[in-house]
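[recover] target loaded
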């Protein structure tokens, strides 16, 4: 539970690149809207472009709470979203991830690149070492995460990832079902 507002919040990891296929942008916007309809606040990297911007727009267009955490180290490469409920500035990526973790009840990864994967794997690693016990979900738009899931399953089969750690995340292709499962886990 967020200690600031008493409201349930989710941390969203997703891509900031522009020019992505429309189905990914539409899925991100729909996810933001679905969270807003449920009264779930969103915390993300604060950017106005790519899936990040689409997700924020989907929530903001319905009056949802959206908090951005934007690191100064990016030097303007990710433009801050102008309509956010709140935009928090931090010095670096590590501080960004720690702040986002402190503000939320769970994590959701949508499609993205290296930054998204870095944030996802840090959330998984922090859960493995006991830094948090928050649920982690992947919204698997168009089987985007299928190769990654195959890799993680292989790592679990060979013993590089403990079976209990393999169960730290779940995968869903439908935003409403993903939010239903998170609500069941965190009591939202």
């Amino acid at each position: 539970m967020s200690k600031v507002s008493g409201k349930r919040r989710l941390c969203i990891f997703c891509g900031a690149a522009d020019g992505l296929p429309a189905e990914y942008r539409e899925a991100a916007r729909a996810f933001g809207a679905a969270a807003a309809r449920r009264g779930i606040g969103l915390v993300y990297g604060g950017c106005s472009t790519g899936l990040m911007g689409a997700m924020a727009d989907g929530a903001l267009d319905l009056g949802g709470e959206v908090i951005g955490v934007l690191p100064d180290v990016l030097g303007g490469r990710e433009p801050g979203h102008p309509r956010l409920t709140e935009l928090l500035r931090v010095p670096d990526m590590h501080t960004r991830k720690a702040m986002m973790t402190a503000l939320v009840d769970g994590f959701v990864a949508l499609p993205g690149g290296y930054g998204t994967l870095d944030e996802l794997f840090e959330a998984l690693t922090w859960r493995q070492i006991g830094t948090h016990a928050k649920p982690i979900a992947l919204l698997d738009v168009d089987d985007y995460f299928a190769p990654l899931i195959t890799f993680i399953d292989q790592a679990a089969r060979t013993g590089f990832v403990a079976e209990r750690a393999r169960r730290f995340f779940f995968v869903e292709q439908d935003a409403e079902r993903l939010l239903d499962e998170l609500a069941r886990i965190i009591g939202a």
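[recover] notes: The chain has one domain: 14-183.
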